[in-house]
Amino acid sequence: MNKIIEQPIPQGKYLSAVRHADLIYTSGMTPRKAGNLLYSGKIKILDPIESHKGAVRLATLNAITAAKACLIQGERISIILQLNVFLNAEEGFVEHAKIADYASDLIIENLGNNCIGSRAAIGVASLPSNATIEITLIAKTIALK
Question: Which DSSP category does 46 fall into?
């Protein structure tokens, strides 16, 4: 899934991503396309893990797209220093890391094998608009050789 999608549309008064020196910080990205939330509701204990793959991949792709929009000509993202995966999970859900692996996998597909740094998979009581997933990342840029 290397194709670039359209820029995520902020749902409030903020930027999708902001850059400071060689670091890019994304806002929380939910599984939206053209501003429309495509995946909502709680992650249930009995849900098959793979049923959330699409939501995670879309939210992650939104974060990557927002980060890439901050690049200047002649550079690329060298590594994701921090990936945060927030899951709107029901109480008792414990498979956070398995769902977060879908985000890591997509980052590796788009940026390469050695591009993933630290990660947190966090269960929360709710997310904006009842989104299933929210992704944030911090990326480091590097000049192309």
Answer: T
pTM of the full structure: 0.93
How high is the pLDDT of residue 136?
98
> Token pair 């009995």 is at which residue?
46
Evaluate if residue 3 carries a pLDDT over 80.
Answer: no
Residue 96 to residues 15, 56, 77, Cα–Cα distance (Å): 27, 12, 26
Q: How much is the pLDDT for 6?
A: 76
- Determine the length of the chain: 145
Beta bridge pairs of residue 123: 87
Q: What angle do CA 73, 139, 78 make, to 5 degrees?
A: 60
CATH superfamily of 17-143: RutC-like (3.30.1330.40)
- What is the domain partition of the chain in residue ranges? 17-143
Q: Are 27 and 134 in contact (CB under 8 A)?
A: no
Cα separation of 87 and 121, whole Å? 7
Please give the backbone phi and psi of residue 144, each rounded to the nearest 5 degrees, phi first.
-70, 145
DSSP H/E element including 70: none
Counting residues of the chain whose pLDDT is more than 70, the rounded percentage is 97
